[in-house]
Amino acid sequence: MNNINKVTFIGFGLINSSLAQVFKSKSLAKQICAFSRREETRDKITKLNIVDIIYDDVVNSVKNADLIVLGIPVGAMENIISEIASSLKSGAIITDVGSIKKNIMKSILSKLPNDVYFVPGHPIAGTENSGPEAGFAELFKGRWCILTPDKNTSKIALETVKFIWQEAGMQVAIMDAEYHDRVLAITSHIPHLVAFSIVGTVTELEDQLKTEVIKYSAGGFRDFTRIAASDPIMWRDVFLNNSDAVLEMLGRFIEDLTALQKSIRWQDGESLEKLFTKTREIRKSIISEEQD
Amino acid sequence: MNNINKVTFIGFGLINSSLAQVFKSKSLAKQICAFSRREETRDKITKLNIVDIIYDDVVNSVKNADLIVLGIPVGAMENIISEIASSLKSGAIITDVGSIKKNIMKSILSKLPNDVYFVPGHPIAGTENSGPEAGFAELFKGRWCILTPDKNTSKIALETVKFIWQEAGMQVAIMDAEYHDRVLAITSHIPHLVAFSIVGTVTELEDQLKTEVIKYSAGGFRDFTRIAASDPIMWRDVFLNNSDAVLEMLGRFIEDLTALQKSIRWQDGESLEKLFTKTREIRKSIISEEQD
Fold first, then answer.
1. A200, B278: Cβ pair inside 8 Å?
2. Do B218 and A184 touch (CB under 8 A)?
3. Of A6, A47, B153, B215, which cross-links A31 as Cys (Cβ 3.0–4.6 Å)?
4. Stated pTM of the model
């Protein structure tokens, strides 16, 4: 793999802030740089004391950078790439941490010069908190990072990005971009959509009932509110950019939910029990997967 | 409140096992008894070493009991009450721990003699584990217990049951039974139904995709599988017995989810962002409620 003299983090939310802390603690680059358009964010980055140079100009921030990590909402990536494309160093590696891959690859690859290498990535890690101050180096430990190279992706660039995520403590898997988006639609996008939706339903309840719901939210609803507190812009862009896979899975889910609705209306206890017994098995598979 | 010489736990799942451990550690009754129809469960209770007499005959188990705690699926309560009604001691107090209250009250009250007091209760606490061995005395600490007496409920019996849950570390709230069922439909029953449903959708995926989904289930789906691993019989009975409130809320939820589906199909980012920003507020209300 290549040596990294200068790494530039574009955007400094939970993921990029955490990864920058890994770079710092493991000395993975000689110079750690960051760009953020917002003064408030730059002030927060300053206080963290992990970044050597903080830029307010994205073009300057990428000059001479060996590695650039895009940690911004998926919907903002194309414009940023257009801005920086002609200022990138020959041989520079760009990677991203977006939750969807197919659309990003298409729009980024079409804008990059041939002597710059793009490695699409998705570290599956997160909390409900966002912003530079939410970051911590241990965020990635023991989790999966999925990279979705295509047949033109540089092998050396791929190895470099793989090495970095492994240094962060992740297991790295290689997957087709479209397949990644289908898997994530189920494991992450639909659960988030459902949580956003159900918490949204509650915001529209009459005030008294809403107060009681918040007070007694110990059970399942509490977990849903945690999920539904995730970053709004990031999630808006996920749904807009992975709409095919999300709509396909959402269709299946609404079908199944409607069947359940019918079972309840017709007091069909047998069907309910059968389903609830089956869903226990999946939990067991996940627990045993983790213990492997 | 009355002194408790003999308490009988009917059923010995997570809640009753945990409450029995509170009785033991705080010496709340002179004699702790339990009934279970299943030999396997009785063997597990024996091993826990917290119960003085374990019965395989429910009629014998309640004889001379001052307090009886029903910790069985809601659908089984009416039959048990029919069996024991004529063997109850005059002045005995019966309480239950079921997640729905209106239907239970109706069926239990119609079967009890006049000199026995029923106090409907619902300790809002749980884990995804079930069975006697899943119990632990700290399960209830800091959580809410809702009691739903009606105008005929004995004040002394109510105070006794309230005292017990407070001894277990719970805050006790008094609520109308029907209102309880509406609140719980939202905070607990619908989230569970949705989790069961989405995990059910995954069980029907083609094998390869299902394997990947289980492997990369770090995000929201993992939380859903935990919820969907809850006791099947208990949840079947919840949905059958709280169908009115569940169907009302499910109707609202499916409406909202369908609107979201439309926003995604039409790439309406503004609506998505607006909803996702609103749902963050509810989380803040819950966190601040907990810090009060």
1. yes
2. no
3. A6
4. 0.85
